[in-house]
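Researcher: Sequence recovery benchmark, item below. Answer with residues only.
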């Protein structure tokens, strides 16, 4: 089984507002996922051809969790952004203050070659490609897909991967994202 790094995941860097690691490489995560999938240690994702692999606990502390718990003291800012050139813009909300929560777990999201081919989003010829690294806040069992991604998928918009979600999946996503926000990465930079 060949597992590679999709170009899409490479956007997850220190200044992205997304989960990242300065200690572990994208290739490490892809290889870790491959080793666990060979041992059948994965979950089926939101559709066939999507897998979720939990990284071993001993590596979780090496992954930055970008989320803050939303309280009355958290200041939020929203702006219109695009992930990629051809995608529709969406409203992104980020926290501009607060202390990021610790990751309790980290999931690796992998798409099969066939799923990626549906929208010409494969960037290698591997059987599986790592497309996302998701830190899950300590105390949470799971982290649902965010509502914007669910919308893009369910409506089969550019950048989405065709899927259908239940009413409960939608509600859990909205509930989770009412409790947490990504810390704006510019607020991580120390200004001396």
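Model:
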């Amino acid at each position: 089984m060949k597992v590679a790094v999709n170009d899409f995941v490479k956007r997850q860097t220190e200044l992205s507002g997304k989960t990242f690691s300065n200690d572990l490489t994208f290739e490490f995560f892809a290889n870790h996922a491959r080793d666990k999938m060979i041992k059948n240690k994965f979950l089926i994702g939101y559709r066939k051809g999507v897998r979720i692999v939990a990284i071993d606990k001993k590596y979780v502390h090496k992954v930055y969790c970008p989320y803050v718990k939303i309280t009355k003291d958290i200041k939020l800012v929203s702006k219109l952004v695009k992930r990629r050139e051809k995608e529709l813009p969406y409203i992104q909300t980020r926290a501009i203050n607060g202390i990021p929560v610790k990751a309790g777990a980290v999931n690796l999201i992998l798409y099969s070659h066939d799923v990626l081919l549906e929208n010409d989003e494969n960037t290698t010829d591997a059987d599986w490609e790592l497309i996302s690294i998701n830190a899950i806040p300590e105390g949470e069992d799971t982290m649902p897909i965010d509502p914007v991604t669910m919308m893009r998928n369910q409506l089969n918009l550019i950048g989405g991967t065709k899927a259908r979600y239940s009413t409960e999946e939608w509600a859990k996503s909205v509930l989770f994202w009412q409790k947490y926000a990504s810390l704006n990465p510019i607020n991580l930079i120390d200004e001396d």
